[in-house]
Design brief:
This protein has one domain. Helix content is 72%, strand content 2%. It is built from 8 helices and 2 strands; from the N terminus they run αβααααβααα. It has a two-stranded parallel ribbon with strand order 1-2. Helix 2 packs parallel to helix 4, helix 3 packs antiparallel against helix 4 and helix 5 crosses helix 6. It is globular. The two termini are 13 Å apart.
Length: 199
């Protein structure tokens, strides 16, 4: 099993539990939940065009350094510095291309995971991720998309926005389902084998 698919299955279990909690909370809320689970997906093209390769390479290097420095800060117990370094990287202009877009989504998701534990951080996470994951734009079929949607759902749940939370979790499940399907195709599994492997 690929490491990416393993992460997807772990998120699937987490999302299933989270969805149950959000739906239960929605039942206690007199307002209609109205989750919007629409999502348009596309297969990313990871090979940059000739003219964009240098800019993409520089961007990817910048984001890699940001992750490494955030790792070092977290290892030293300095979460504030880790958040600050990730925030600095998020402010960096994004290079053209699908790979850069995916890397940015993953970066935003990681930053959101560090921000979400308190209500103010959750609100900031929502303001950051909602535009990147807007209903009216196509999203790449990638584990970074699923991760970002889970983080958005967690943040929305933290501030009791049950409609956004349920919609985000449902959208992440659809991304993960597509990823499992593609992985099954890559491995040459039949429908029955793919369903068995997804358990």
């Amino acid at each position: 099993m690929s490491r990416g698919l393993a992460r997807v299955r772990t998120w699937a279990a987490t999302v299933s539990v989270a969805c149950l909690g959000v739906l239960a909370a929605g039942c206690e809320d007199s307002r209609p939940a109205g989750p919007d689970a629409r999502i348009e997906l596309y297969s990313p093209v990871l090979a940059a065009e000739d003219g964009a390769r240098e800019a993409e390479r520089a961007y990817l290097g910048e984001i890699l350094r940001a992750h490494e420095q955030a790792d070092a800060a977290l290892a030293a117990g300095d979460e504030a510095s880790a958040r600050a370094r990730l925030a600095e990287a998020l402010a960096h202009p994004v290079a053209a291309g699908d790979r850069a877009a995916i890397v940015r989504l993953d970066l935003a998701a990681r930053y959101g995971e560090l921000q979400t534990p308190d209500a103010d951080g959750a609100s900031e996470t929502i303001r950051m991720l909602e535009p990147l994951l807007a209903i009216d734009q196509a999203l790449p079929i990638d584990s970074a998309t699923a991760r970002a949607l889970v983080v958005l759902g967690d943040a929305a749940s933290r501030v009791d926005d049950h409609a956004l939370a349920a919609g985000s979790y449902a959208r992440s499940v659809r991304v993960m389902s597509k990823l499992r399907s593609l992985e099954a195709e890559r491995l040459g599994l039949g429908d029955a084998d793919a369903k068995e492997g997804a358990r």
